[in-house]
Amino acid sequence: MSKNDRKRQELFNLLSANLELYDPDNAGKFRCPICLDVFGADSIIGPQPKVDLAHVYSESCGGKIETLACADCNSHVGTWFENDLVKEHRLWSNIQSPDHGIVAKLEFPEGFAVNARFYSTGPAKTNIEVLAEKNNPKNVELFKAAISKPNLSTLNFTLNVPTYHQRKLDVALLHAAYMMMFRMFGYEYIWAAPIEPIRELLTGRAAPPHTDFLMMTDLPKANNLSKQLLYRVGIMTDPPEYKSFCVGLPSPNPQVSTRAIFLPGFGETDCKAYEKLWEDRAKKFTVRATVLKDDLWRHLGDPNYRYMAQRLWRFPGHDSAE
Ligand SMILES: [Zn+2]
Fold first, then answer.
1. Whole-angstrom distance, CA of residue 55 vs CA of residue 78
2. Pairwise CA distance, residues 30 & 13, whole Å
């Protein structure tokens, strides 16, 4: 048995015991958290198992935490959405590396453009190299003339950087937050919270222009909550009218240590709180959250922990961080 076979088996045992608590008709089986299809114990066996390890956050972006999903959903999310998360990470790592940098186009209002390599040389410092071999010599001359004008104080240009699809990246982040919730609370959250629209997004092929999900805030390095929330689940308890779950994910931006993604809680009243948070998402306010213990997932198969998420949701405790 390989290391991955063993991990799959352990997660299958844990999650099928958890499924039995909420869906006794499918005792001993696994339901994919994304498409909700049911799989038997033989689905984790073989060289190409139908149910496989699923990284909560893409492995190529440094994600290490795993749960299970069906192989079809895994590859669907990877192709349609996570790919743009990988592009975002690569862009940030290249811009910080003098060996790589990123090649972008500088478009001048005078009607010419030059290709240049950008890389960061320190906080708020960027080097721009206009590369002779990547440009039409005529445009290089026009560029030289533009920057050597006497009394030049401002240089106007549009910067065209090859980038990622922001809406697809958003869905990838929503996927990671959803999988964190599944890993932590198993089927309880998936059954009881009003999150069907998230599954519709994840099984779809397009990033919609608008969704009522994905509220995200970047927590700077020095922030107290930032350190505690990374790869953890929290409950935002204050301001109380916005009570929501929050999930901490990493960011490739060196100034940000954690991206906090907000998700709805349980029950009609508390979902109203999430709707209110959505409506007021542009406002600024200080939040207080209780970061939950990470080892709760170990108890997913224990009947005594049934409705663990809803109990914590109602009484989140007091060890809060701002
Ligand atoms: Zn699936």
1. 10
2. 9
